[in-house]
Each structure stands twice: as structure tokens, then as C-alpha cells.
Amino acid sequence: MKNQVGSTKPLKLVAIFIVLIVAAVAAVMVWKRSSGPTVVDVVEYPMIDQRDTPTALAVAADGTVWFTIDFAAAIGRVRDGKVERLPKPRTSLEPVGIAVTADGAAWFTDSEARQVSRIAPTGEISSITIETPVARLGKIAAAPDGSLWFTEATAYSITRVKDGKLQRNVIESIRSGPLGVAVGGDGTVWATLQSGNQLLRIAADGKMQTFDIPTRNSSPADIAVALDGAVWFLEFRGNKVGRFAGGKFDEFQVGEQSAGLTGIAVAPDGAVWFGMLRNGSLGRLRDGKMREFKLPREGARPYSVAADAAGNIWYTDISGYVGMLKASAAKK
Predict the structure, then answer these.
(1) Mean pLDDT throughout 37-57?
(2) Neighbouring residues of 89: CB distance < 8 A, sequence distance ≥ 6
């Protein structure tokens, strides 16, 4: 009997050890779930019309947030804590591009109307028509000199708008599929060539150069340029955040499963932010480390991302909201 009783001690120790491991794992899981922003860290603005789907957004220097609305004849704006819905002549279809200029106006692409349009802070709209039978327009970005650049997939072009005139920069390869565009502080234009799996650089003298992305078929999408000149971009199919600087690529994997990466912005502190559509989260890459900020509302689907001067992170949620992650939480 003594031998039998004595033989149970190791089993009891093993059982206790297993319980401790399970408890530790559970504690880590609880920490991970609670490490996201709380309700007080996030401010959300529901759409005035519940049928509206906010898509692209951009933040003006005065803090006004402009956004496009899919399937609606309107442009949205959040100003002084209130959502406004400004009418426009036609219904939008997949309005994925918007940018703001120094005068506080917002420019947006409108494929259905074959136009690039400007809406003033007063709500007045003026448009430039694309002289092609069809137009598939992508993102748009403002340059330091006041010009606008947008991607024009149907013309295989990264097109410049200056003083009401269009100037096309046609890409040689018909496999290019331009989508995202951004302009650096020195005026250099960068774009993603989705079908070509490349980045495109347009220098001040108009010279164009392409760079092959290391991950094959990565489907590069949104793009942003940091203050130090580094180019950041999303690889939608690759589920990675890419960086190009000094002629070299770096790629950062975002989890094991496709998160549906959409929208990218560089905050004033240099952190890179992006939407995780399928995870209901915002992602942050800072100092080479990834962190996921799970949004507190169930069913959130963040699509576009922008940072304001104070470090607040704004996003559109295609389930019907414009939201803001407060800078105090974003910097943690």
C-alpha cells in the first residue's frame, strides 16, 4: 500500500503543473483580449443616413475629417464633433480616393461620373471631366506644391491635376493596374502597381522607375510616405506591411491568417497604422513590432485610416461609422 500511495505523488505534481499552465495561458488570453482599446478610448460617429457606407477619408489641417460615401450623392464631413452630409450632383460608386489640400478643400475621384472633383469648405463643388469613354479611378493624393495626383487604371496612368489641367504619366506595362498613390515631402510621387506587383516612382523631372516587390502576387494596395522619406505600403494578398527605403525592401507579416489589410497612414510619431477589415481591428507597426487594437464595437469593419496632427487615428467603418482612436490610446 505504501508503494501505491507513494506512486501517486508524481501524478499529483503533474496534475498541479498542468493546472498552473492552463491558468497561465488563460491569463495571457484574457490580457490579450483586454489589451485593445476600451470604449472610452474610441469615439464613433454614426452616419446620418443609416444606409450610407463611408469609404475613403482624409484629415484637413484644421482637424476636419472628410470622407466619401458609397452609393450616395453626398460627401461626408466630421467637424467640431458633428457629422455633416454635403450633397453632390451624382451617386458615387466605389469612391475610394479622397485628399485634402492646404486651403481646406477636399478632392475626390468619381469613376461613375468620370471626374475628379473639388468640394470647398463651403460645400461648393467643381469638377474636371476625364475625356475617356470609361474611367476607373483609384486613390488620390495632394502634393506640397498644391497639385493632385490620382491613379487612372483605364489609362494606365498616374495623372497630375494642376491649375485645372490633367497631365498623364502613362505606364509602359499594360499589366500595371495602378491603385494607391502618395507624394513625399520632396514632391516625389509613389504608386502601387497592383497587377504588376511593383512600386512606381515618379521623380520631379518626370522620370519613372519601377521596383519589384519581393513577395510574388502580393497585390500592393494603399501606400504612404513617412517624413523620413520611407515608403510604406500594404500587401493585400501577402498579408504584409511593406517598407521601401534606400533601395531596399522590408516586409512585416501581419499574423498567420489574412486580416484584410486596408488603408495606411503614418502618424506624427512615425508609427504606421492600417485597417484590418476581417479582424474588426486597427493595426500598428512601430519599431518593428506589430500590435492589434481590437475595436470595442462588435461587427466593426475598418476600411480607411488617417492620422491627424495630434496623433488621433481616424478610420471609416463600412458598417456605417466614422471612428477615432484617441492619441492617448494610440501611443501606448
Answers:
(1) 93
(2) 73, 113, 125
Q: Which residues, at least 6 apart from 244, have a Cβ–Cβ distance to it below 8 Å?
A: 199, 211, 230, 231, 233, 250
Residue range 159-202, pLDDT digits in tens: 999 999 999 999 987 677 899 999 999 999 999 999 999 999 99
Which residue in 68, 77, 144 sits closest to 111, CA to CA? 68
For strand 125-129 and strand 137-142, is the pairing parallel, antiparallel, or unpaired? unpaired
Share of the chain above pLDDT 70, in %: 88
Separation between Cα atoms, residue 240 and residue 236, nearest integer Å: 7
Calpha distance 176→197 (Å, rounded)? 8
Sheet of strand 189-193: strand arrangement: 178-183, 189-193, 198-202, 208-212
Instruction: Check residue 36 and give its pLDDT.
Output: 62
* DSSP-derived 3-state class of residue 33: helix
How far is 255 from 251, CA to CA, in rounded Å?
13
- What is the number of residues in the chain? 332
Rounded Cα gap, residues 270 and 289, in angstroms: 13
Buried b (16+ CB within 10 A) or exposed e, 221-240: bbbbbbeeebbbbbbbbbbb
Q: Find out whether 106 and 118 touch, Cβ atoms under 8 Å.
A: yes
Query: For residue 226, what is its C-alpha cell?
Result: 513617412
Entry pTM: 0.88
Distance CA 165, CA 147 (A): 10
Question: In one letter, which amino acid is 300?
Answer: A
Mean pLDDT, the chain, whole residue set: 90
Q: Could you tell me the pLDDT band of residue 28, with boundaries at 50, 70 and 90? A: very low
Q: How far is CA 87 from CA 9, 109, 260, 292, in A?
A: 77, 15, 31, 36
Which phi and psi angles does 220 have, rounded to 5°?
-65, 140
Compute the chain's Rg from CA coordinates.
Answer: 23
**Pick from 135, 137, 163, 136: nearest CA to 148:** 163
